[in-house]
């Protein structure tokens, strides 16, 4: 080690520069660098969406409740119409006209021919 130290003292800063220079001249493996970048890009990301989750069971419950409400309303309307419909109805009187005299076709033909 002492011999190496003496050599460094004699060369001074040139020995240090040579060490740095050799480290800087190392070539990086191009394929290695590309593979590292590709790994980060291909990483799976979680899917985010703003769509609502549709639950068919909830929709069926809503439809059933609406059906019940409408059947109740229908029953109420029928009961109200029965109450107002009990008033006596007036029968419409049909007036029949008495039969007219039969038309004399021969007489009208003679009158037209005289014109």
From TrEMBL:
Taxonomic superkingdom: Eukaryota
Biased composition (Polar residues): 105-115
One GO biological process term: ribosome biogenesis
GO cellular component, one term: nucleolus
InterPro entries per the UniProt record, alphabetical: RBIS (IPR031389)
Stretches for region Disordered: 81-115
PANTHER family in the cross-refs: RIBOSOMAL BIOGENESIS FACTOR
The protein's name: Uncharacterized protein
């Amino acid at each position: 080690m002492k011999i190496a130290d003496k050599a460094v003292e004699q060369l001074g800063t040139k020995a240090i520069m040579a060490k740095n220079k050799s480290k800087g001249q190392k070539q990086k493996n191009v394929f290695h660098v590309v593979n590292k970048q590709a790994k980060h890009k291909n990483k799976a990301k979680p899917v985010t969406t703003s769509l609502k989750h549709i639950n068919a069971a909830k929709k069926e419950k809503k439809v059933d409740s609406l059906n019940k409400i409408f059947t109740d309303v229908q029953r109420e309307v029928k009961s109200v119409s029965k109450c107002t419909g009990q008033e006596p109805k007036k029968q419409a009187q049909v007036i029949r006209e008495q039969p007219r005299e039969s038309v004399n076709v021969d007489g009208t033909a003679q009158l037209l021919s005289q014109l």
